[in-house]
C-alpha cells in the first residue's frame, strides 16, 4: 500500500514479486518496480539505484521477467558498479569480474580490474578469484606470493573455491600433510547450497572448491601422502568429485599437472 510514496517499500515489493516471497512469482512486475527506482530522479531513490541496477542486470542475464541480453546486463552492472565506488553495488563489481571471465565477453584484464575493485570493497568471492588469477597469471602477471596471500585470506574467511585451490597449491609442492589437512576441513560439509548462502558465493564455484579438495584428499589417502593410506576412504572422496569440479580438474590437468592413468580413468 505504501509503494507509491515509499521507494524502500517499492524496492522490497519488487524483490517479493520477483522471487515469490509471500506472494505468487511475478518477475515481470518485479522488473517493472526495479526500473521505476533506477529511472527515478527522486533523492529518496538514490540509495537504492545501485541495487536496482544490479537486480535488473541479473534479470537481463538470466532472461527472467525480461528478454535475455548479455550486453544489456553488462550495461546495467556497470551502472551498479559505478567505477568501483565502495558505496555502489559490490556484488555488481564482483559479477563483472565473473562476466569478463566468460567466453562471450572474455577480457581477463577487465576481469582482474573488477575483481580487484570488489575485493578492495570487501567481496569474499572476488578475493578468491584474485588468488587464482595471480596463481596462473590470468589478466595479470603471475605472482605466487600475491596469490598465496589472497587464497589464504579468502580461505580463512570461508571461501571454498580458495580452499580448494590452496589444497591443489600445497599438493603440487609436495606439502602433502598440509594439503590433506585443509582438504579434510573443506570437505567436511558438502551442502553446496548452504555453503553458498553462508559465504554469498556462487554455488558452481563452491562445488568446484569442494570437488578439488575432495580429489586431492582422495589422492593423499590413495597413495598415503601426508596421511595414513586408506583406499576405502579414498574411494569415498573420489565419488565427491562433481561434474563441475571435474571440469576444473581437467583444466588443472591440461596445465600439465598430475597426469596419471587413474586420473584419466576417473575423469574421462
From TrEMBL:
It holds the Pfam family Sel1. It is found in: Cytoplasm. SUPFAM superfamilies: HCP-like (SSF81901). Keywords: Cytoplasm, Repeat, TPR repeat. InterPro entries: LRP2-binding, Sel1-like, TPR-like_helical_dom_sf. GO terms for cellular component: cytoplasm. May act as an adapter that regulates LRP2 function. This is LRP2-binding protein. It comes from Pavo cristatus.
Amino acid at each position: 500500500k505504501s509503494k507509491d510514496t515509499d521507494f524502500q517499500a517499492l524496492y522490497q515489493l519488487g524483490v517479493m514479486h520477483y522471487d515469490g516471497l509471500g506472494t505468487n512469482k511475478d518477475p515481470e512486475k518485479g522488473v517493472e518496480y526495479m526500473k521505476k527506482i533506477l529511472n527515478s530522479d527522486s533523492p529518496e531513490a538514490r540509495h537504492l539505484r545501485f541495487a536496482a541496477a544490479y537486480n535488473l542486470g541479473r534479470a537481463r542475464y538470466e532472461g527472467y521477467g525480461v528478454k535475455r541480453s548479455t550486453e544489456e546486463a553488462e550495461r546495467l552492472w556497470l551502472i551498479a558498479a559505478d567505477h568501483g565506488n565502495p558505496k555502489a553495488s559490490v556484488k555488481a563489481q564482483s559479477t563483472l569480474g565473473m562476466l569478463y571471465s566468460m567466453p562471450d565477453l572474455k577480457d581477463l584484464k577487465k576481469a582482474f580490474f573488477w575483481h580487484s575493485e570488489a575485493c578492495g570493497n570487501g567481496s569474499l568471492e572476488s578475493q578468491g578469484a584474485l588468488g587464482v588469477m595471480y596463481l596462473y597469471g590470468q589478466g595479470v602477471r603471475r605472482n605466487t606470493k600475491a596469490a598465496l596471500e589472497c587464497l589464504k585470506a579468502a580461505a580463512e574467511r570461508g571461501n571454498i573455491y580458495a580452499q580448494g585451490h590452496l589444497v591443489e597449491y600445497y599438493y603440487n609442492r609436495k606439502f602433502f600433510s598440509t594439503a590433506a589437512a585443509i582438504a579434510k576441513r573443506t570437505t567436511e560439509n558438502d551442502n553446496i547450497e548452504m555453503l553458498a548462502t553462508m559465504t554469498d558465493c556462487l554455488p558452481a564455484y563452491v562445488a568446484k572448491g569442494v570437488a578439488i579438495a575432495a580429489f586431492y584428499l582422495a589422492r593423499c589417502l590413495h597413495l598415503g601422502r601426508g596421511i595414513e593410506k586408506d583406499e576405502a576412504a579414498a574411494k569415498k572422496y573420489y565419488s565427491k568429485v562433481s561434474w563441475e569440479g571435474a571440469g576444473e580438474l581437467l583444466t588443472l590437468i591440461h596445465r600439465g599437472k598430475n597426469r596419471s592413468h587413474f586420473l584419466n580413468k576417473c575423469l574421462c
